[in-house]
Write the structure tokens for this entry.
Amino acid sequence: MKQARRRLVVPAYAKVNLGLEVLGLREDGYHELRTLFQAVALHDDVIIEPRASGVTIECAHPAVPCDERNLAVRAAQALLRYAGVKRGLALTLVKRIPVAGGLGGGSSDAAAVLMALDALFKLNLGTTGLYPIARRLGADVPFFLFGGTALGLGRGDEIYPLRRQIESQVVIVDAGRAVSTPAVFRRIDGGLTPRENSSTIYRFVSSDLDGSAAYQILTNELEKAAFEEAPELAGVVRRARTLMRGAGAFFASLSGSGSSVFGLFDDAHSARRAVERLRSTGMTAHRCRTVSLDRYQRAWERALRVAGARPTWSQ
Ligand code: ATP
């Protein structure tokens, strides 16, 4: 077998939430959620180079901490400790996912580090072995061990990949404002009416409706609190959503606790038209596509093959 090369470059994809329901506050202080995650092709690159000891990180983005507060560093330290690997790492992040934008950037970087180190050091933990480490790092981290279209239950960390994977063009609007997820959750606590279960996301998942009709029942229950937290966001989100719908989006919503807004489109032409219109009003918009479970795994296989390593799910 070829020796693994010393430098690994892996993708860390963003996610959007197609609907997010908050059922109540749990005894452990977290919220009980129902959400549908969707991986999208917008991604950071995580560059990993083995070192004798210590974990360092470099990132040119001014809002990303370059120390132990960085979730990628915490992921590396947690995995090295867990597996008893007496090595160090130099991490570099090429940040493209808007920071604190509800797109799960930090969580995805962390999951990417876990999966890459599993392959690099031949630990053979795979998704099952990495899962408990991922959920300790953060509620959004486990989703990124799977990618594609997946139901997120519990804190959003119980992941059920769907058989029906969504394939569409995606337009993401970077509202240019960081929104703190914990602050948004704190705001909803006062007005929360606890309920046992949800209906809309389950109805969506089990619906045999095709096309846009199925999406109209999905809502993001963090939106109101996100607008209270960042009042100037409301106007931007509403304008972006209206503009995307006008350009042909079959679904448009705030992602997570914001501030990013996204639209789903059947074809590249409408998505391109939406991006042009958004940019002409001064908004920052990216066009990409959804990343299905299969695509996600293939992208990982490619990234690791280049370095002479293999993801553990294919072994
Ligand atoms: P979440 O909803 O999970 O909070 P998000 O997409 O809204 O995710 P992130 O981009 O993950 O937000 O950033 C949230 C905060 O985490 C940032 O304000 C930043 O200071 C910190 N952070 C730690 N590690 C990273 C990382 N690798 N990339 C981006 N931000 C990070």
Summary: The chain has a mean pLDDT of 91.
